Amino acid sequence: IRIFNSMNAADLILVQQADFDINSHYQRLLQVNPSGTGAAVLFVGLVRDLDDTHVQAMQLEHYPGMTERSLEDIVKQARLRWPILQVRLIHRVGQLDINDQIVFIGVSSVHREAAFDACRFIMDFLKTEAPFWKKETRTDGHHWIESQTKDQEAKTRWNK
Q1: What is the pTM assigned to this prediction?
Q2: Cα dist. 13→31, 52, 99 in Å?
Q3: Contact, 97 vs 24, CB < 8 A?
Q4: Tens digit of pLDDT for each residue in 49-95?
Q5: Who has the most CB within 10 Å: 9, 43, 47, 86?
């Protein structure tokens, strides 16, 4: 586990195999500025089986060092756009089963709009910029997951 510092020493960026506890990260978001935090927005992504593809598990791989730097850059970009108090970004790698937690993004801010927008921005850029590779195990074998057009379209909304 490596903790990377973004533009704020309070931020936490982790790539790890272990699961994470949502409540403990939520509580840490609230501790940064107890009297000034107006909003904390959380996003948790899960392994799922969509469209009857019969997904049984997912293997997530990454390029250590490069991945963390990419995530750090995404958080820095968010900090340039919104008044963020803290970001907690955790992405799991390794073998995951259906309903396992994959990603946690927590953003605290003085204002709810900033917290919502920054959280969504981080997720949209993570899906398109961070070097993660996903391989699904299905009943008919293993399948590498390609980048989706909808993820690229979601990212372009932030260029306006």
Answers
A1: 0.89
A2: 17, 33, 22
A3: no
A4: 766 668 888 899 999 999 999 999 999 999 999 999 999 999 999 99
A5: 86
What is the rounded CA–CA span in Å between residue 106 and residue 124?
14
- Burial label, 88 (beta-carbon count in 10 A; 0-12, 13-18, 19+): buried
pLDDT digits (tens, 9 = 90+) for 93-144: 999 999 999 999 999 999 999 999 999 999 999 999 999 998 888 888 887 8
Q: Are 58 and 132 in contact (CB under 8 A)?
A: no
Cα separation, 13 vs 27, in Å, equals 16
